[in-house]
C-alpha cells in the first residue's frame, strides 16, 4: 500500500540518512585499511623526498650521514615500486572485510519509502545492520 506524501518524504530522509551513514562507514574502513597497508610506502617516499637536495634537503643528521641524493632517489623509486602490490593487498583486505561484514548489503532501496510493509534489509548470518525474518536468498556477491 502506498504511503502518504509526507510519510514518504520522512521515510526517504530516514533511508537517505541511513545509506549515508553506511557509506561513511565504508569510506572510513577503506581509509583505515589503506593507511595501515600503505604506511611502508608513505614512510619510504617521505624520507626519500625529505633528504633529496633537489626537493626539501632537510638538515637532519640521518640525511647528512646516511642518505645522499642517490640513496634518496632510490628510496623514492622503491616507494613507488612497492605501492602497486600494496594497493592490491589493501583492496583485497577491504573487499574481504566488507564481504565478511556484509557492509554492501546494508544499503536500503528507496522503494521502502514509497510502500508500507517493506522489509528493512536482506538478512545474512551475522550481518550487523539486518533485522530478523528477511529474505536469505539475496547476496551481494555470488
TrEMBL record:
Q: Give the primary localization class.
A: membrane
Keywords for this entry? Membrane, Transmembrane, Transmembrane helix
InterPro entries linked: TMEM88
Its placement in the membrane is given as: Multi-pass membrane protein
Q: Per UniProt, what is one GO molecular function of this protein?
A: PDZ domain binding
Q: Which residues cross the membrane?
A: 21-49, 74-95
Q: Which cellular component terms (GO) are annotated to the entry?
A: plasma membrane
Q: Tell where it localizes.
A: Membrane
Q: Family membership, please give it.
A: Belongs to the TMEM88 family.
- By what name is this protein known? TMM88 protein
Q: Which organism is it from?
A: Cnemophilus loriae
Amino acid at each position: 500500500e502506498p504511503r502518504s506524501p509526507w510519510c514518504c518524504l520522512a521515510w526517504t530522509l530516514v533511508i537517505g540518512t541511513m545509506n549515508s551513514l553506511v557509506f561513511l562507514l565504508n569510506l572510513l574502513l577503506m581509509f583505515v585499511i589503506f593507511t595501515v597497508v600503505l604506511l611502508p610506502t608513505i614512510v619510504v617516499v617521505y624520507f626519500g623526498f625529505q633528504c633529496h637536495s633537489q626537493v626539501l634537503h632537510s638538515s637532519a643528521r640521518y640525511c647528512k650521514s646516511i642518505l645522499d641524493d642517490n640513496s634518496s632517489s632510490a628510496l623514492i623509486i622503491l616507494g613507488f615500486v612497492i605501492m602497486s602490490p600494496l594497493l592490491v593487498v589493501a583492496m583485497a583486505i577491504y573487499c574481504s572485510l566488507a564481504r565478511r561484514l556484509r557492509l554492501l548489503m546494508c544499503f536500503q532501496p528507496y522503494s521502502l519509502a514509497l510502500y508500507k510493509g517493506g522489509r528493512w534489509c536482506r538478512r545474512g548470518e551475522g550481518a550487523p545492520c539486518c533485522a530478523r525474518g528477511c529474505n536469505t536468498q539475496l547476496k551481494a556477491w555470488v
